[in-house]
Design goal:
Elements lengths: L5 H19 L3 H10 L19 H14 L3 H19 L3
Helix pairs in contact: 3-4
Amino acid sequence: MSRLPASIRQRLKKEANEWDALISQQSPDEVGEQIEMAEPFGVPRPPRQPVSVRLDPSDLTMLKRLARRKGIPYTQLMAMWLHERIEWEKDKRPA
């Protein structure tokens, strides 16, 4: 599910197609030159806030095991689950 509105997605897709058409007319050397001169695109994102949560020791142990199986830090797993639940609650709520 995309977070961008359909109108913006369509505009970006159209722009991407225009760029593809333009680039296909240039030689690989010209394209390489332009890529070298391009500045990296960065999306500003507000910094994350640390939060302290008291958990039952057995829950924390299980959380760490699950995270280890998935190959990610347990704090990242907690943040993912929390985010998923917030999105689910937000979508579930009647408008």
